[in-house]
Amino acid sequence: MCGIVGYVGHRSAQDVVVEGLRRLEYRGYDSAGVALVAAGPDGAGRVEWRKRAGKLANLEKLIGEEPLPEVTIGIGHTRWATHGAPNDVNAHPHLGNRRRVAVVHNGIIENFDDLRARLEDDDHQLSSETDTEVAAHLLELQVGSGVDLTTAMQRVCQVLEGAFTLVAVDAEDPDRVVAARRNSPLVVGVGEGENFLGSDVAAFIEHTREALELGQDQVVTITRDGVAVTDFHGAPVTPKAYHVDWDLSAAEKDGHDWFMRKEIFEQPHAVADSLLGRRTRTGALQLDEMRLSDQELRDIDKIIIIAAGTSFYAGMVAKYAIEHWTRIPVEVELSSEFRYRDPILDYSTLVVAISQSGETADTLQAIRHARTQRSKVLAICNTNGSTIPRESDAVIYTHAGPEIGVASTKGFVTQLVACYLLALYLAQVKGTRYGDEIADVLHQLEAIPAHIETVLSRAEAVYELARAHVDEPTVLFLGRHAGYPVALEGALKLKELAYIHAEGFAGGELKHGPIALIDTGQPVLCVVPPRGRDQLHGKMLSAIQEVRARGARTICLAEEGDTAVAAIADTLIELPRVPVLLQPLLAVVPLQLFACELATVKGHDVDQPRNLAKSVTVE
Ligand code: F6R
Fold first, then answer.
1. DSSP structural state of residue 366
2. What's the confidence (pLDDT) of residue 291?
3. Is beta strand 501-506 parallel, antiparallel or unpaired with respect to 474-479?
4. What are the structural domains of the chain?
5. What's the pLDDT at 29?
């Protein structure tokens, strides 16, 4: 939520900052802006800035019309609006009265009303509706009193409440960019004779893969030759260095029209990578980053999964797998609801937090609550160095590579893989499954990338189907068991990308109300469980018959050779045969393709759907 870039070095700051913003635009695209420090005619420095509502392209057009000076220090911002409408005035950067300090900000300064009133009493003119502008004025007051920008930032942060990443430049100090973070992401990129700041590494991956992780309540100063980190009181801190193990090509579209489509097609690789190195030489399952002892895991008598959006649906699938393989009871809860219901937690409860970005504020706050109640927290996360794994007791990283499309795709399937691995690992440690049963499931998981390839090879048929549904006002999704969260996920994808009303239901729930929605021609996408010894398949067939009898058009996702479904489906999408618990890994793929294509045909920006942002860092 909001993308931030800072740069000081030897290149054109405008180029580095604008390019960084392009790579971070998925985090918010309500407005964009840059500020550079240039030498004035009399030798004194001045801040030059440009900002514009709307996407980055609008800012680039403005810079084309009103060029910026060629300098080598600057900051930039791409906004997801919280306080104040998405217009030019509220766009970042914000400046103080004297136009000496420029600031960009991600997060929410909760006490800004108070601070603003005090500043206005002292004749400060604040022109925007944002919470950010107070920080610019406060910093300017501090540097005006004679301290440097680093000290000014430390002092200002001590009076701010809430969540913030702030990045600032000072016209009279053209050699440093200063930033601070509390509950909001910021990483440092370390180069040669140049240094970078970014909300995530995508901002500078083109220039360096050496990064520094910042902790909570820290201030960082970058100059051409160095990086210095302190806490908010000025005490020096040594940041943790890490190497980013993906390169620029991972952040490019590779010939696809959208990042989302590219990421859908990357799923076979992402799943394979997330399974790599998980077996010992004897065939047992190993999870390197587990960090919880076998005894701690054996003591667990309840699991609560917390997550938001698509990650929540991955958690719903995980419940079926964990309970089936381990017999440990599992609750799944929206992270935004979790801590407000006073959940029953103790040291024998394992809280599993699922987050692709590792920065979702709702999930982070839920983790903090769980830890105050002495529960152990295990994160399932795709982003190295992000806050959620750092604040958890253990982590299982998914290896999906950077997910840039705002709608999660490969994030979801790799989260499923991590959840299955966790379930199997717990089964191994607790002895609830035999080793050969676990090895068997691992074997089936290792076959999944090839199965996803098969599903993807049939994409054209799904695209045709999507094109036939462009004018549909409502699309319904049905599923049962592990297919139910898939139905919910299919509906979410369609809502967020195609802006079509869509709802997912459990097949058995239909008759309790939702069936009243069915009318002649209503499209219903049905995720049919594989045939098995349980009665799931037959029950799902009954649900399909019920909607057909009321005039629905059924589009069924079913395993190959399912003649019973073929006989009643208006359209059939075949999936390779896998066990019911693993079917979500395949069934979700056509639903992703469907939403992506439908939104494309409708002319929507698939990677940046309206009103959304990746990485939701506000509660
Ligand atoms: C939907 C989507 C969101 C995220 C949710 C959680 O396509 O991407 O619903 O799943 O915002 O994000 P993470 O997993 O980063 O915590």
1. H
2. 87
3. parallel
4. 3-255 (3.60.20.10), 280-446 (3.40.50.10490), 453-601 (3.40.50.10490)
5. 86
